[in-house]
Each structure stands twice: as structure tokens, then as C-alpha cells.
Specification:
five-stranded mixed beta sheet, 434 residues
Length: 434
């Protein structure tokens, strides 16, 4: 029974009947009742109509929009459609904002072709995959601007930064289609209440450019703490002036192991390399435990001594590795001793900041879910657009819903109250506008 009722497209019939009823009443208000005496002497006269078949979340509507002629005007202003003062169509586009937004939201979770297939399960006339792609790019660029304005002058005290890579196919003059990589750069901020804010999401940009845009919008505080990995370009771009940089401890351990392998290779067995990395790991977690302990008991002096002890032990480890013939690992450890202790020195000042970047690692998982399948390839513009939609929704559902309302013009909509009465079989549907 329910399937049979759905096939009747009652919602679509109700919408069409309601629009026709509104159109007729508006034209009557301008021109008088149809075929009434004296209409020929009035300023406004009926001038036929046009057929419109907008695609909506109810399917493709079949509407006849009446035109009215103003006898006191000439040229392009002579004819107008009263219905367009009440109902806003998306320009000359077939598919309206509601069905376009449904298609785009599906595309954030699956491919454009799958979004089209899934949408057809509940909407007969779904935009094509290419149309969904165009709308996703359009809405993605709009939501990036919308989000930038939302975090402007936010002066966030803590930021997390990370990068990732996805496949791309770029057309070049010399080599035709060439497969390479897209670089995804994400900056996430956290406010005083602990709420996440997407500061920036860019594709194939540079950290210097991202940092300049963030500074221009004043999204980060002048004394903000930036947490990230061991990328030198990243650190130099963000850690300027009074800003501090905290190297993620987990990244520090992994990078030390990799550099030790690069230094020694077959000259040191895996077991010995693991022993050295474990020594560094033990030092780092001892420092972390001391920070937690002394933040509670308030023993600032003991915390200072623990930091100095940690720096001395790391430098001693670097000297030992240098004597073994390593060169990359010792220099990296000297950097670790400077940047991995930022959270500890701030704890001396009574400030609590994260020692890892787990919060942005979870966010980067959203990037991987949608964009990092091996068989996928992306354009820079398309990838940046879809990721901005995904990440704004992930970080702030309220901001995302506000954007949706703006796109669908729900904030300025004039709501229509109506009563629908279903009569006995064969008599149709009765529309009462109020």
C-alpha cells in the first residue's frame, strides 16, 4: 500500500496545485477575475504564460507561470510574472537549491555517480553526476568564504596543522595526462570552550601562503600555540613573533626511527634501532608524566628541573649517535629538544596545551574516507571544494546548517500556510490557501 501511495506522487501534486492556486490568485489581484467585464481598461492585463519544470526534492514539477503586462511601461519592464515575487527560482537553472544540496551532501560520502544512483532511490529526477559535481564545486567555494568570515578576528589560542596527499590527474602540454599528487593542507583551531573551528583547508598551496591568509583574517592569536609535525616549512610559516610551536611527540618518535634507519641502514639491526627509539620514547613520556604531576601539585621548580633534565638527556643521546656515524638523527634530536618541550615550558607559566595533534589526525581521517581511495583522482578545485564542505560540517554542524539555510534562502523565505483535505476517491485534492 505504501509503495502504491508513493507512486502517486501526492506531495508533487500538492506542490503543483498549491503553486497554481497562488499564481491564479496573484494574477487576479492585478488583472481582476478571468473574463470579468472591464478588465480591458485596467493597467495590468494577462499576457499568457510560460512553462517551467524545476527539479526539486519532490521531483520535476510541471508549472505554468502566468505573465502580466503593465500597459504604462515599455521594454523589458513591460511584462512580469507575479509568482516570482513569492517563489524564488534558482535563475534559469533546472535543478533548484533543495535537490542540489541533497546531491552535494550525498557526494560528500560517496562518488558523484553513486550519489546520483542513491538519490534516485527517493527522488525520481536526480541531477546528473556532472551537475552534482558542478554544484559541489560552487557550494564548496561559497562555504570556504563563509567559514573564513565566521572565524575572522576569532583570535584562537591553539591551532593544529597537518598535511595529506591524494591522487590527481593533471593535463600538461608536454606530457598529456600525468598522474601526480594533490597536497591537502588543513589548519584547525580550538577556542576557549574547546570547540573546533576550521581555520583553513587548501589544496596545492604552501604553508607560507596559508599562514599569510590566516594572519590577514586574524583567525589565530598573536601568542597562539601551533601543534604539528616535524615539517620545517610548516614550523617557520606559523611559529613567528610570539607564537610557539609544539612538535607532536608521537611524530617525533616515528621520525626519529625513520631517520635512524636512513642513517644506519644495514649497519644497525632492527633490534638495536628499536632500543634507541624506545629510549627516546621513555624520555618523552617521562616528561609528559612530570608535566601532569606538577600541574596538579604546583611545584614549578621541580618541573623546571625535569625539563632541563630532559634536554640534557636528549643531547647526550644525540652525541652518542653522532659517534656511531649518524648525522640526520642527532640533528633531529637537537630540534626535538627545542620544540617538543613547548607544552612543558607553558605548563611552568600555568598554561595547559596539548602535547599531540590527535584532534587533527581524526579530522584528517575524514579526508581519507572521501578522497584517498587508490582509484580516485581529483582536480585541485574539485578536491578543495568537497573537502571544505566535509570539514566545515565535521567541525561545526551549527555553522554548516546556517550555510545550508543561506544557500536555500530559508532565512528570508515567506512561508505559505495551507490546508490539504483528501476527499473520497475520484474527487481529487482540495487546496485551501491561507
Amino acid at each position: 500500500m505504501t509503495t502504491a501511495i508513493k507512486r502517486l506522487h501526492l506531495e508533487k501534486c500538492v506542490a503543483e496545485g498549491l503553486v497554481h492556486s497562488i499564481d491564479e490568485s496573484l494574477v487576479d489581484a492585478y488583472c481582476g477575475s478571468k473574463h470579468a467585464r472591464g478588465n480591458g481598461g485596467k493597467r495590468y492585463r494577462r499576457a499568457g504564460g510560460t512553462r517551467r519544470r524545476p527539479g526539486t526534492c519532490l521531483g520535476r514539477l510541471d508549472l505554468r507561470v502566468s505573465k502580466v503586462r503593465d500597459t504604462q511601461k515599455e521594454g523589458t519592464q513591460e511584462h512580469f510574472r507575479p509568482l516570482e515575487d513569492v517563489l524564488v527560482f534558482d535563475g534559469r537553472r533546472v535543478y533548484q537549491e533543495d535537490i542540489s544540496m541533497i546531491g552535494v551532501e550525498l557526494a560528500t560520502k560517496m562518488t558523484y555517480r553513486d550519489a546520483w544512483r542513491e538519490g534516485r532511490l527517493f527522488v525520481d529526477d536526480m541531477p546528473s553526476p556532472r551537475t552534482i559535481n558542478r554544484r559541489a564545486i560552487e557550494y564548496g567555494e561559497l562555504i570556504k568564504t563563509f567559514n573564513t568570515e565566521a572565524v575572522r578576528d576569532a583570535s584562537l589560542g591553539t591551532a593544529f596543522v597537518d598535511a595529506s596527499m591524494t591522487a590527481t590527474r593533471e593535463k600538461t602540454r608536454s606530457h598529456g595526462w600525468k598522474r601526480s599528487k594533490n597536497i591537502v593542507l588543513v589548519t584547525l583551531g580550538v577556542d576557549k570552550n574547546g570547540d573546533k573551528k576550521l581555520v583553513d583547508a587548501s589544496v596545492n598551496s604552501t604553508w607560507n601562503k596559508v599562514a599569510k591568509e590566516v594572519d590577514a583574517a586574524n583567525s589565530l592569536d598573536k601568542e597562539a600555540v601551533v601543534v604539528g609535525d616535524d615539517c620545517i616549512e610548516l614550523r617557520k610559516a606559523f611559529a613567528k613573533g610570539r607564537r610557539r610551536y609544539q612538535l607532536d611527540m608521537i611524530h617525533a618518535i616515528r621520525t626519529a626511527g625513520y631517520k635512524l634507519w636512513k642513517d644506519m641502514g644495514k649497519d644497525m639491526c632492527l633490534k638495536d634501532r628499536r632500543t634507541i627509539v624506545k629510549e627516546l620514547e621513555k624520555l618523552l613520556y617521562t616528561l609528559k608524566g612530570s608535566v601532569e604531576k606538577h600541574l596538579e601539585d604546583g611545584d614549578v621548580g621541580a618541573l623546571r628541573r625535569r625539563i632541563n633534565w630532559f634536554v640534557k638527556r636528549v643531547k647526550s643521546l644525540a652525541v652518542r649517535l653522532l659517534k656511531l656515524g649518524c648525522w640526520q638523527t642527532p640533528w633531529f634530536l637537537l630540534e626535538v629538544s627545542n620544540y617538543v618541550v613547548t607544552f612543558a615550558w607553558l605548563a611552568v607559566e600555568g598554561k595547559r596545551v596539548p602535547w599531540n595533534s590527535n584532534i587533527i589526525e581524526r579530522l584528517m581521517g575524514e579526508v581519507s574516507k572521501r578522497a584517498k581511495h587508490r582509484w580516485m583522482s581529483w582536480s585541485s578545485r574539485g578536491l578543495e571544494a568537497i573537502l571544505n564542505i566535509i570539514l566545515v560540517r565535521y567541525t561545526s554542524e551549527d555553522l554548516y546548517e546556517e550555510f545550508k539555510r543561506k544557500i536555500m534562502k530559508l532565512d528570508v523565505a515567506n512561508y505559505i500556510n495551507c490546508k490539504v483535505q483528501v476527499l473520497h476517491a475520484g474527487s481529487g485534492v482540495n487546496f485551501n490557501q491561507s
